[in-house]
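Changelog note: in this version the structure field was regenerated for every chain. One regenerated record is shown below for reference.
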Amino acid sequence: MKRIPFCMISTLVLPLFLISNVSAQDKFGWPHHSKQDNRSNEVSPVKNESKNPLARVIKIPSSQDDSADARANVQVAHTTEVCPNCQSSCGGSCMGVKFYQGVDQYSSKGIHKEALWKDAHMIPWEAFAYGEYIGPYRTPHVPEYRVRVNDQIEFVYQLTREQTSEPYRLGVGDQIEITSVTDPDLNQTDVTVLSDGSISLRLIGRVIAGKKTIVDLQKELNERYGEYFKTEPKIVVRGTKTDTALEDLRDAVDARFGTGGQGRLAVVSPDGTIQLPMLGTVPAIGLSLTELEREINMRYRALISGIEVTPVLSQRAPRFIYVLGEVETPGRVELTGPTSAMQAIALAGGWNIGGNLRQIVVFRRDYDWRLMALRLDLAGGLQGQRPYPSDEIWLRDSDIVLVPKKPIQRVADIINLYFTQGFYGIFPPELAFGRTTGIFD
């Protein structure tokens, strides 16, 4: 059997490739820009947005203005292919805004139909900013952040110094001073409330002072000492060291000689809890920072008063996705911001030849760790044939993106495994066929 020369094969295949390329452009409706469309490349930016004529024609709906009328105004403005100011095809140069032929969310001709290149129309390419790499502020990533495992939260402690309506009650560690106008021998200084809430005084011995107000304790001491004196002893109780529990808490979170301020850094443990001084273990997973602040302050107020705690998210827990299969560098990719499926493939170095971009699989774990899977078709988007791919989804933490092999690539791997590395690895072709010049010579 004679071999066909390579030059003859290329002569036959090259025209077919060129014809198929032209037909693909007609099929997908790739836009053809004229010289008139690119005439406004050197237009200076509009400095005063309120004087921009585009603002009177195109109204971009915000989250607060998402009515049907607003969307209709945008639809009408986006479907026109003439300049709304001079009624010509200047591309928006007369207004200082560039209009290009492209595709956006209003290009679709149907409710559930994906926009194609043939649906391209004039869109304001720089309606939000002029050459600004930061881009618009966009909407928040999440409506309200919820605490997760491995989040680092700094709790800032601050004294409220607010006057309370309830009288102060003595606690363990507080110190009082006892004085008597009638008998100076009854005077005692630095009387400390013991751990059982009691104090020891002359003549009467042990007295319970814990959780009592100074007025109540003073009244009780006058009654107890009155049993030993004919006249009223006139005992006066004065607190010399109070709010001991509050001072102990301040000492526990004092960082003025380190990082500064009064705070404590806590990491959410795998069981979803944090540990704080005086409170111990506190559930935190799934709570917003506002809810966590309310919970912790309520717990502290049940023990002491005069302190307020503010939680600050110091560092989010790292979030990762995993890109496997036919990509350049498979492995783990950290999510530092909103990331889509196409961006994940780009972060993995792009796809390899032989990767099946029409059957990309995304594995996902639900909130209760149930496994879900979704198949995506990103071939048109990654190859530039679909300008608005509906399968371009946002990824979340712990997603697995798998780019499988094409069937022909799997067949090639099987042939390479069983024949090239297997059979021919044991029996070289020159030994199996008894020739030394190759089996196809």
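Spot check on this record: Residues 157 and 309 are 5 Å apart (CA to CA). Confidence is low (pLDDT under 50) at residues 1-80.
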